[in-house]
Amino acid sequence: MSASHHGTAHRGVFPVVPTIFDADGNLDLAGQLRCVDFMIDSGSDGLCILANFSEQFVLSDDERDSLTTSILKHVGGRVPVIVTTSHFSTQICAARSRRAEQLGAAMVMVMPPYHGATIRVSLPGIRAFFQTLSDAISIPIMIQDAPVSGTSLPASFLAMLARDIAHVSYFKIEVPQAAAKLRELIAEGGDAIEGPWDGEEAITLLADLDAGATGSMTGGGYPDLIRPIVHSYLAGDRDSAVAAYNRCLPLINYENRQCGLLAAKELMKEGGIIACAEGRPPIAPLHPRTKEGLIETARSLNPLVLRWSK
Question: CATH number of the domain at 12-221, out of 3.20.20.70, 3.40.640.10, 3.10.20.30, 3.40.50.2000?
Answer without folding.
Answer: 3.20.20.70
